[in-house]
Amino acid sequence: MKNGVILAILSSLVFSIMNAFVKAVSLSIPYSEVVFFRSIIGTILIYLIMKYDKVEFLRKDIPLLILRGVLGSLYLLAYFYTISKIPLADASILVHLSPFFVIIFSVIFLKEKISKKTIYLLPIVILGAILVIQPFNYSTYSIYALFGIVSAIFSAGASITIRYLSKKHHAYEIIFYFLATATLVSVPLMWNDFTIPTARELFYLVCIGSVSLLGQVFLTKAFTHEKAAVVAITRYIGIVFNGMWGFLFWTEVPDMLTVLGGILIVTACIVQSWKKQKITS
């Protein structure tokens, strides 16, 4: 097994552990406060890493760096809220819709062409999302699941800005702006609902901030060792990891419609990534 694939699997495992911590602490700590601790701890750590590696802050593209930070912040808020309300596996499936939103946004904002094969796959993804959300069975669950879709949209928007910024800026600088902005955005949201964490909850929050940065490092290194398409495909194992934690700790068992919807989404995304791999190989 190649190093890039191993690193991609490790990143998915680490992020799934972070999600489990988020799920656990969200039972008593507001999701906006979880985002705050995740972001401020990550900001401090990435700043120290930048100092150690002597990575400088550039004075260009600051508005776009801030936009990337805002989009990333909104993604975190929507995703953590989703995790706090629905099963981990379901939330993970929905956020993995982001690759197809990336395709749509790249056509709109980057003027990239969309292939006919991608157009054929989009209805499959939409059907998969419908099966997971189950809007025909209206309930509060359906509303919470919609936030998972929103998190995927914001994640895709952030990815588009990263695609542009990565040509001129160091990855650490982009990550710093993301986490620093998320810290600032989460402050007013948690101001009236701030809950003083217990020792255990504080431990969870510190783990979330530390583990998420470790996952980001693994993911960044995975992209440097392996083709982006291979890494993208490998990361879908994260759905399995999230489902495993959900079952072990919260006895979350997805129904058949969710499983079918997840299979459709993952299959369509893997086919899309595989097509790109075939083109670039």
Automatic annotation (TrEMBL):
GO terms for cellular component: membrane. Its main location: membrane. Belongs to the EamA transporter family. It comes from the Bacteria. Residues 3-133, 144-271 form the EamA domain. The chain crosses the membrane at residues 34-50, 62-81, 93-110, 119-137, 143-162, 174-191, 203-223, 230-250, 256-274. Keywords: Membrane, Transmembrane, Transmembrane helix. It is found in: Membrane. The keyword Transmembrane helix applies. It is a multi-pass membrane protein. This is Uncharacterized membrane protein. It comes from Caminicella sporogenes DSM 14501.
